[in-house]
Amino acid sequence: MNITLTEQLPQTHTKKILKKEANDKDASCLVVLVDDKKNIVAASALTEYQDRIEQLIDVSHFTGKACETVADYALAGDKKTTKQNPVQLLLVGVGSLDKLSNTILQKIATTIYQSTQKRVASITVALGDALEADEFGQFALNLLAASYRFEKYKSEQSTPVLTDIYLLADSTLQPTLEFAESVFAGQSLTRDVANEPGNICFPAYMAEQAQELAKAYPDLLKVTVLGEKEMAALGMGCFLSVSQGSTKEGQLVILEYQGKSKFSANTDTQSAIQKATTNAAKVSNGLKAITDKLPLKGTGKKAVKEDSNAQTANDDAPIALVGKGVTFDSGGISIKPGAAMDEMKFDMGGAASVLGTIKALCAARLPINVVGALACAENMPSGDATRPGDIVKAMNGKSVEILNTDAEGRLVLADTLCYVQRYQPKAIIDVATLTGACVVALGHVRSAVFSNDEDVLFALENASAQSGDLIWHMPLDDAYQPQIDSPIADIQNIGGKSAGAVTAACFLARFIEDGQAWAHLDIAGTAWVSGADKAATGRPVPLFMQYLKNCADMA
C-alpha cells in the first residue's frame, strides 16, 4: 500500500465511467469527511465539489455519525455533469471532531479502506487542518493497518484493487507520515510472525527472522543468538526449565540497534563467565563461544559513578526491550484445556512486538541505542518436561519453586532480565502475554503497565496518549510480595488466585537490581483478537515507537 501527502484533488477526465472496469488504473475516489453537524471537513479545498456534496448529504439524509457512509459513483447526470465531476465521492461521517479518539479514528480509517478497496485504484482523503499531528499519525497508521492481510496459507488469495492513498493535508505533516509508515512496517512484521502457526514459528524461526533483519540493516543492527548450552553455562535454569520439555531448542536472541553509537558488548567478560558457570561446569567447552556474546557486567549505579569509562556513564546507554517469546504454550505438565489452545501460538506476542519495534527503528533510523531481547521457547509436556514442585536456579542465583508449569513466561523473562542488565541500560521494558488475570482486569482495550520508576511510567503514559496504543497503570506494592514467597525456595512462580497479574509482575521485580529503572507490560488482552477471526494486532509496537521517538528527541 502506497500512502502519500498531496495538496491536489484527484485529476479529472472527460470519459464517462459507467462501463469502466473497477480495476481501471484511472478509477479514483474522493473521500469527504463530514461531522455530526453536517460540516464538511476541508471545505475550502473542496469548493468545486461543494454543490454535489451538499446535494448528496441532503438526498441521502446523511447525519455525519461516526463511520456512516454514502457513495456517489458519478454514474448519473448528463454529459456536462459527468464531464465536470467524474470522480467518485464517498462521504464518511466522523461524529464530533472534538471527541475524536484513536478508537474512533481507527474505525473511520477501517471504514474508508473497506468501502473502497474492491472498486477503486486510488483514493484521496480530504483532511485539511482538521487533525493535529498525533491524530494525523494515528489516522495514517490505521489506514495502512487496515490494508494488512495474512493469507499466505490460503489457496485462493484476495487482491485488493486499491493500491494508492493520498492524504490532502499540509506538507508539514510529511515527517509524521513517514514515521507512521515505519511503524506500520514494524507492526506488520509483528503480526506476520505472531500469525504463523506453531509448527512454523518456533524459537529457531524467530532467530532466523532477527538475522534476516540484521542482513537488511547491517549498518544499524547486530544480532546474537544464544542456544541452550550457552544459556546453561550462564546459569539460566529458569529459562531452560521451560524449553526442556520440547524437541525445539530454546533461543535467546539479542538484537543491538545502534542508532546513535556502536555500543556492542565489551568482550572482556571472563570473570562474569566464571561466576555464571559455577552451576554449569560440565559445559565449559562452550565458554569460548560465549565470551564474544556476553555484555560487561556492572555492579549497579554506584559502580557507574566510580568508573568514568562505564558504558552507562554517558547518554549512549541503550534502552532494553525484553519480549516473552513462548512460540507455543501447551501449559506443559500443567496442561491447558483444549478449547482455543490453538491461540497459544500467539504467546510469543511480546517477542514479536520487540522484533517489530526493532524493524520500525531501522526503517525510521531513530538516533537512539536499543537492545532487544527475544526470550524464545516452546512449552511442551514430555518425559523431559519440568514437573510441578521442581526447583531451579535463575541466572542471579535465586531459587524458584515451580508450582505451575503454565506460569512459564515469567521464568524465561526472569533470566533474560538478568542478562540484559549487563548492558546497564537506561531503562528496561519487558512485554509479555503473561496472565489471564490481566484480561479479566482490563479486557482487550488497554495493556497493563507496572513500573518501579516514575519517569519511565510517565514517559510510557505520554507515549500511550500520543500513539493511541493505550495502557493502564497497575499497582506494584511490596504488600503483594509475600504471595510469591516459597517455604522451600527463594520464590515460587505463582501467588494464588488473588491479583494474578500483580503477583506475576512482583515475580519479575525480584530479578531487577536496585536502582535499575524497569517497567513491565502485560499484553495478554491486547496482543491478539480471539475467535473466528483470530489474528495478531501488532500491539504495542506503536506505543514503543512513540516512546523511543520521544526519548530520542529529548537526548
TrEMBL record:
Principal EC category: hydrolase
UniProt keyword annotation of ATP-binding present: no
Keywords assigned by UniProt, alphabetized: Aminopeptidase, Cytoplasm, Hydrolase, Manganese, Metal-binding, Protease
Cellular localization per UniProt: Cytoplasm
Cofactor detail note: Binds 2 manganese ions per subunit.
Catalytic center residues: K336, R410
Catalytic activities: Release of an N-terminal amino acid, Xaa-|-Yaa-, in which Xaa is preferably Leu, but may be other amino acids including Pro although not Arg or Lys, and Yaa may be Pro. Amino acid amides and methyl esters are also readily hydrolyzed, but rates on arylamides are exceedingly low; Release of an N-terminal amino acid, preferentially leucine, but not glutamic or aspartic acids
UniProt-listed PANTHER family: CYTOSOL AMINOPEPTIDASE, LEUCINE AMINOPEPTIDASE-RELATED
HAMAP family, per database record: Cytosol_peptidase_M17
Full protein name: Probable cytosol aminopeptidase
Organism: Psychrobacter urativorans
Gene coding for it: pepA
